[in-house]
Amino acid sequence: MQTLLFERDVQRIADDITGPITYQPDIVPPSLAATWFETLREQGRWHESSRMMYERLVGVPRLHGHYSVSDPALPEVLRHVLAFVRQHVDAPFNSIGLNFYRDEHDSVAPHNDKLHELVPHQPIALLSLGATRTMIIRRKKPPHLKTELELEAGSLLLMGWNAQLHYDHGIPKLPYPVGPRISVAFRVRPTRNAEGW
C-alpha cells in the first residue's frame, strides 16, 4: 500500500492490518482550497442520478462527476489538484471522482468501495473542499467500532485498499444547516475501467 509521503499532523484512524486509514488536516492552504472549490462548483461536469432502493427508484442525494486522468477534457483545476495530491501520496492515480453535497440534506449511505473496480493494494485519497462534513467510519465486524471524523476544507483522507474489506464509510444527513462541500476522490482503476469512472 502506498502511503503519505509526509507524516506531519497525520491522525491514524485504523491500523495497517485492517486499514490503514489516515487523516491529515490543512494539507491545502485555505485560500487555495476556496479557489479550487469555487472553480469546481462552476466547471465540474455535474450529474444527477437515480437508483433502486426498497423496490422504488429514488434520486441519489448529491451531485457527482467522474473523470479519467488521461481525458483531454480533464479540467485544468483538476490537473492542479492531482499534482498537489501526488506530492503527498505516492500512487499512480488514474481516476477522479467528484461528489457535490449541496447542503445538509445531501449524503452518501455507509458503503465500501468495490474491490473489483480498484487495482489491488493501491490507496484511495479523498480531498475535501468547502464546508466541513462528518464522515462515519465503522468497523464491519463486532464490536463495530465507529469513528466520527470531521472532514475539513483542505484535508486529505487516505484509505488503504484493504480498509474496504474491514470498514464502511458514509456522510450522513444533518439536522442543521450546513454549506456546500465537494469531495475529490482519487483512485487507481484497472486500465479497462479508468475511463468513465
UniProtKB/TrEMBL annotation:
Domain of life of the source: Bacteria
GO MF, one annotated term: dioxygenase activity
Protein name: Alpha-ketoglutarate-dependent dioxygenase AlkB
Matches recorded under InterPro entries: AlkB-like, AlkB-like_sf, ALKBH3, Oxoglu/Fe-dep_dioxygenase_dom
Occurrences of domain Fe2OG dioxygenase (ranges): 92-190
Keywords: Dioxygenase, Oxidoreductase
Any matching Pfam family: 2OG-FeII_Oxy_2
